[in-house]
């Protein structure tokens, strides 16, 4: 009986570790932070897969907008953002892909469970959670217009 209980205990600990490492059904966040100079607003519109788009959000300087969700197989959240005040400069990007490689390589890991994007004057950055630094991911596109709204 004692050996069975010990074996059960070790199997339980191993299972808890495996559950923690499973990406599916985990809660996750995407945050977009406006760090544009001169109090410029940032216009944001995101969509999960083929679902409904979020409301269009106008984010003031130093403001942060967050989407909370659960990760399911094939989770994809992509965003369009426009740089104010004229909203001519645009960026379209995959803000989250439900794959371990994306979370590790782009967001820098799952702790904390957030992928933080930052709009700056020269483009869009993402924070590497593991080291706390930001990396330029894409530059602003001036060929797009605000007519891209979903």
TrEMBL record:
Q: Which domain of life is it from?
A: Eukaryota
Q: What does the UniProt keyword field contain?
A: Secreted, Self-incompatibility, Signal
> Where in the cell is the protein located?
Secreted
Q: Which InterPro entries match?
A: Self-incomp_S1 (IPR010264)
Q: Could you say which residues form the signal peptide?
A: 1-21
What's the chief localization of this chain?
secreted
Q: Mind telling me which Pfam families this protein's record contains? A: Self-incomp_S1 (PF05938)
Q: Which family does it belong to?
A: Belongs to the plant self-incompatibility (S1) protein family.
- Entry protein name: S-protein homolog
- Write down the species: Camelina sativa
């Amino acid at each position: 009986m004692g050996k069975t209980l010990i074996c059960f205990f070790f199997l339980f600990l191993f299972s808890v570790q495996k559950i923690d490492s499973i990406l599916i059904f985990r809660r996750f966040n995407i945050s977009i932070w406006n760090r544009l100079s001169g109090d410029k607003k940032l216009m944001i519109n995101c969509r999960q897969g083929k679902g409904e788009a979020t409301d269009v959000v106008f984010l003031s300087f130093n403001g942060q907008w967050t989407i909370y969700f659960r990760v399911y197989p094939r989770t994809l959240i992509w965003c369009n953002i426009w740089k104010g005040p004229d909203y001519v400069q645009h960026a379209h990007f995959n803000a989250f892909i439900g794959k371990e490689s994306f979370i590790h390589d782009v967001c820098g890991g799952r702790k904390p469970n957030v992928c933080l994007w930052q709009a700056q004057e020269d483009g869009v950055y993402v924070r590497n959670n593991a080291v706390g630094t930001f990396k330029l991911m894409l530059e602003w596109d001036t060929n797009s217009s605000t007519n891209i709204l979903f």
